[in-house]
Amino acid sequence: MTSASADTTEESGAENIMIKLLEKLSPAECPKLLHRFVDGLCGRSYPRRVEYSEVWSLTEWGELMNSLAQLFRVAVGRMSKDQEVQDLLGDLDSAHRDATLQCVHARREEIRQALVDRTNEISSTQLQDFNWQIKLALSSDKLSSLNTPLLNLSLDLKENGIQRAVNIEMNKEELHTLISALEAANKVVLQLK
Q1: From CA 25, how far away is CA 61, in angstroms rounded?
Q2: pTM of the full predicted structure?
Q3: What is the dihedral of CA 83, 6, 193, 107, to 10 degrees?
Q4: CA 120 → CA 39, 55, 160, distances in Å?
């Protein structure tokens, strides 16, 4: 077994133990807690511990909240199938397992959008749109015959809610450098999936 898969197995084992804390809550109350937790993930208010202080200790509450966050991130972020979600839930009893699966199904798109928004917030600048043109510079004030192709790249960026345009002019070598950098970034993104 590789080190990475051993780490994943260890993490999922620890998560399964923490998810078992859900069983302390009645099956009738479980969907309410799960949906309120998803509300918190989506930017609204999380469930308050004070409402569940008779069910879980402060430590258990923190562990349960962390486990639920991990569960929803993995289940939705990795687009897990039902069987994969059930594997994440370990030996959780069927009533709580069904409530969790129903919550994942019902709120999948909302959770996905919240995860995307959270990821986008990592950078304050976001690319909204782009446009490009190729020009042929026939001459310049220094050379009478130039015949150099140039790329004009227009980027529409949104930074802290403010739209701004950036125009970049590149020659052939600069364009090749940009394409190489974008291909390398794409490889990293594909490896993360």
Answers
A1: 12
A2: 0.60
A3: 40
A4: 19, 36, 12
CB 114 within 8 A of CB 98: no
Residue 83 tokens read as: 């069987």
First to last CA, the chain: 20
Task: Give pLDDT tens digits for 91-108.
Answer: 889 999 999 999 999 999
Q: How far apart are CA 184 and CA 190, in angstroms?
A: 10
Give how far Cα 3 sits from Cα of 7, 10, 12, 178, Å.
Answer: 6, 10, 14, 35
CA–CA dist 99, 126 (Å, integer) = 37
CB hemisphere CA count around 165 (13 angstroms): 7
Q: Are β-strands 162-170 and 148-159 bridged in parallel, bridged antiparallel, or unpaired?
A: antiparallel
**Tokens matching residue 166:** 């950036």
For 79-91, what is each residue's pLDDT tens digit? 889 899 888 888 8
> Which tens digit of pLDDT belongs to each residue from 28-62?
999 999 999 999 999 899 999 999 999 999 999 99
